[in-house]
Every structure is written in C-alpha cells, then in structure tokens.
Amino acid sequence: MTDIQSVPFVDLHLQHAQIAAEVASGFDRVLAEGSYILGPEVETFEKAFAEYSGVEHVVGVGNGTDAIELALVGGGIRPGDEVIIPANTFVATAEAVLRAGGVLRLVDCDHDFLIDVEAVAAAVSSSTRAVIGVHLYGQAAPMELLRQAIGSDVLLVEDAAQSQGARRNGVRAGGLADVAGTSFYPGKNLGAYGDGGAVLTSSAEVADHIRALRNHGGVRRYEHLAVGTNSRLDGLQGVVLSAKLARLDMWNQQRRDAAGYYDQLLADVDGVTVPRTVEGNEHVFHLYVIRTDRRDELVTALGAAGIGAGIHYPAPVHRVPAFDFLGLPAGSFPRSEQLATQILSLPIFPGITRGQQEQVVETLVSAIGG
Ligand SMILES: *Cc1c(COP(=O)(O)O)cnc(C)c1O
Question: What is the CATH number of domain 248-369?
C-alpha cells in the first residue's frame, strides 16, 4: 500500500501558483497606500464581480454568513419575520436568519439536493417574509419556480456561497433573485486568503443600506445613520479576489471536466449514484457529491488510502444539536435526513489530475467489491 499517494480533498496551492506574482505586486500596492480595509482594491473587485455576475451592485463584507444576514436585513427583514430555508444546508444559512432576528421555517429538499419548490409552496403563508434558495454544491436552486410559488411580495434571497460562476438559464448565480449573499472562504470556488463575503443586488436602495450597515451604519466616518455592524472586506483580499476572478471561468471549467471524468469512471459502479445537473443549470461543482448506501464504509476506506473525502453535511439543520430548540424530531424532513446518510463528497478542485481521480475511484471500487 506504500505506493498509494494521498489525494487531498482540495489543493489550493495550484491556484496560488498561478496568481502569486499578481498577488505580490497587489499586496505591495495595498501596503504602500495603507488601504487595509475597504479602499480602492475592494472597490475594483466589487465592480468587476458585479459585472461578472450581471448585477448592478456588489458590497464586500466580512464573510458569507454576514453576507446572508445583511442581505436579509438590507432587503427589509425585521425581527420576528418568518424566513423559509432548506433543511439540508450548511448551518450558516440558518445562523444568518437567526442573527437577522428572523424566525426559521425549514423545508425539505428535492432529489437534486436543492430546496423543494412544492414544499415551499405548501409552507408559505401570510407570515412568510423571505425565502432563501441555497445553490448547494455548485448548481442553482430553481429561483424562478420559487418566485412563482411565493409571489412578488416575499423577499427572494440566494445563498450563493457554493456557486460563484454557476448559471441558471444563462443568468449567473447572485443575479437570480432580489438579493444574494456569497462567501469567499478560501475553499469556495472564488476564495480569498482569509474570511470574506459579498452581497449582490441590482437594487441601489438595498446596496446603499448594506454599504452603511457593514460599516457601523454610515458611509462617511462618524455619520452613523443606522445601528450597523463591522463587516468589511480587506484590501489584501480584494487583490486576491480580483486575481482569482479573472481565472474563475477557466477553473470552473476544470471542475466540470473533472466531474465529467468521475461520471465516466463511476458509470458502471454498482451502488453509486453520481450527481445530476438540473436542466437549465450550468454546474460549477464546488463539490462532487455521490450517493451510496455504504457511505460510512467508503469514507473509512478512502481515509485509510490517504484520500480526502467529505460529508456535506452529516446532519440537516434540524438534527444539529444547536437547533434542538426548533423542536423538529427525526422524520420531519425525510429526504434531507436520508441524503445525510448517503452523501459522500469526492476530491475535486481545479488542477486535480486524471490519475488522482482514477486512484479515488479504484479505492472506491475495491472497497465496494471487497
Ligand atoms: C460557506 C457557506 C456559508 C458561509 O460562509 P462563511 O464565509 O464561512 O461565513 C453559507 N452558506 C453556505 C451554503 C456555505 O457553503
């Protein structure tokens, strides 16, 4: 077994090598200007990312969780307002709702891991003020169907943390609803070298509100017009994000190619279901998530072979201890609960080699066969 090389779950060195020179000169600029927080590098990135995403405004903030919270507050959500989210998401989506003062209303997902539109239609009521579609694993939730289900008075929000560059019916994630929050956590498709996030919207009013909220409630120093917070993007991160944005489409294509190769390698493997791209979607494979009834065994086998594998996520929100207060027992959202026992994320990142992917699949196949 000693000749088996480990395959990391994600390898960010490959991306850094391509932008290292640009980042070094950009960092020199930030340090010379002393524009550590917000400033010209952040503004340059905000403009470029808005243009890329097909929205009018991008507001850089401290992280993705803040971005979703600020998207809700900027979009008019007030304490006590009910917000619908899918049960199968990273806890951050739920945290953002609670931090905004919202009342959480969970719904189940569909067979593609995305929020179930019919469940939303059944859950929406006169108390519903917002719905968050989570573009889980790198493909967009069906936002236009959600809009039909909820009507025009309910705020429609995207959790676009896993979907930078993804498209639905030709429109980029982040531009599919009233307002979106995204994350630049280093491992995301567009990742910074630390925490970062952004709100995307085409509403000038919402953007202005969030620009104030992220900076202690004022756009000019000591002019506090609202009680805000401190959630700002750093100049150094602006440099990194601009350099990476210029390569995002290329890197996403590499992810799609890698996903296609896994599909091919796994096509005849019994007991493994590969992910499906929903009609109308261009997937960016933030994660490549297979389903198998023998998940736990396979995780162990991959781990023993030095292969990074992940589970996104081991429990839906209502089965996470911190959310016991919701009082939702096992069985509340059967599809999300079943998927949580079956899902397995295989290594995927721009630059993963075919040899690495073959090694992953060989390990899976011998574990399944053995
Ligand atoms: C990463 C992530 C977030 C939160 O982003 P942070 O920058 O870590 O706060 C929110 N939602 C989803 C679906 C995520 O994957």
Answer: 3.90.1150.10
pLDDT tens-place string over residues 94-118: 999 999 999 999 999 999 999 999 9
* Ligand 1 pocket, residue 191 CB under 6 Å: no
What pTM was computed for the model? 0.97
Tell me the best of 183, 184, 311, 313 to mutate to test the pocket of ligand 1, counting ligand atoms within 8 Å of each CB and taking the most.
Answer: 183
Q: Please return the burial class of 358, using the count of CB atoms within 10 Å of its CB with bins 0-12, 13-18 and 19+.
A: middle
CA of 186 relative to ligand 1 center, distance in Å: 11
CA of residue 197 to ligand 1 center, whole Å? 9
Give 263-299 pLDDT, tens digit per residue.
Answer: 999 999 999 999 999 999 999 999 999 999 999 999 9
- Check residue 355 and give left, alpha or beta (phi > 0: left; psi -120 to 50: alpha): alpha
CATH topology of domain 13-245: Aspartate Aminotransferase; domain 2 (3.40.640)
d(CA 26, CA 278): 39
Domain ranges of the chain: 13-245, 248-369
